[in-house]
From TrEMBL:
Entries under SUPFAM superfamilies matching the protein: HRDC-like (SSF47819), Ribonuclease H-like (SSF53098)
Biological source species: Kitasatospora kazusensis
Name of the protein described by the UniProt record: Ribonuclease D
Annotated HRDC domain residues: 203-283
Phylogenetic lineage: Bacteria, Bacillati, Actinomycetota, Actinomycetes, Kitasatosporales
PANTHER family named in the record: RIBONUCLEASE D
Amino acid sequence: MTDEAALAATVAAFAAGTGPVAVDAERASGYRYGQRAYLIQLRRAGAGTALVDPIACPDLSALGEALADTEWVVHAATQDLPCLAEVGMRPRTLFDTELAGRIAGFPRVGLGPMTENVLGLSLAKEHSAVDWSTRPLPEPWLRYAALDVEVLVELRDALEQELDAQGKLGWALEEFASIANAPKPAPRVDPWRRTSQLHKVRRRRQLAAVRELWQARDRIARERDVSPGRVLADAAIVNAALAMPQNTPALQAVQGFGPRVHRRQLEQWLAAIDRAREIPEAQLPPATAPHEGPPPPRAWAEKDPVAAARLTGARAAVTELAEAHSLPAENLITPDLVRRVSWEPPAVPDAASVAAALRALGARQWQVDLVGPVIAAAFAAAAVVPE
């Protein structure tokens, strides 16, 4: 569907449909800049399947509003919801089949393995890594994309039954509501610090070079609408920052800047390194990323041995509890919340106080009910100092 008339017909059809709506989005990660959607797939009983081109129809708010009171079935919702929101589609209620699989204890939660394990059906995945920004999209790709929503509602129903049988349906519904109601995330601070292999860079001047190279690459990638990795690899950025070459021949000798790199490109990368070289010492980036909250756990034993003992005990208790309920520990409770409450526990860390602290940190009620008592018990054990 690539024009406004077809969009209007799709909106009317899906508004008149019944039951949940299966929604999926295809991005062009690794090919294009950013995470925008290049194809959106929908399926609903009574409406059939629709494939929407969000490049040709960038405002899909009418479609989003038509489905506002409908449960959306999405696989790995946190991946797709941001790009759907960009075109005006935001669910009020959702069922995440990937997260449902995690909570139900399935070891493999990709859509293919889940469909095979739960429904006994095999999904073709031969086009999963293609460039979805290609226009026109080949017919085999479109058929492949349509299959991703064909079985989602059936998978949702089977997983709901499984969760209910395990006594976990309420947990899953709380998680889905949290995702649907989550605010838009704040921009990441110092995104350049996510450069692969950054741990090799120790000196602040070299970190400044990574930052300047990363920002130059990001600007070029945005202007060209290509993935930053296709402009310059992370490894090349780190290699150049470690070498800090003084001229073009020296830069060309750095791995990642070989003879195929055009001289004008070399000059722009060298200019970024030169900018880093000229930054006053006081303005260089700190050696470690600024962050709020507790220090890295590896430093706890030296900074606060009692807190380190609390964290060790809490982690072990959470792992044991997660295994008992057959779900990943990180889905039982976010590791960051365990660190935070271990670093700054309540004055009297009994079960009620720990539960209140976890709630204040954003834990869902089902998590608080399960985890609060075992963390409180772990804190009590850590407070007992042997004579």
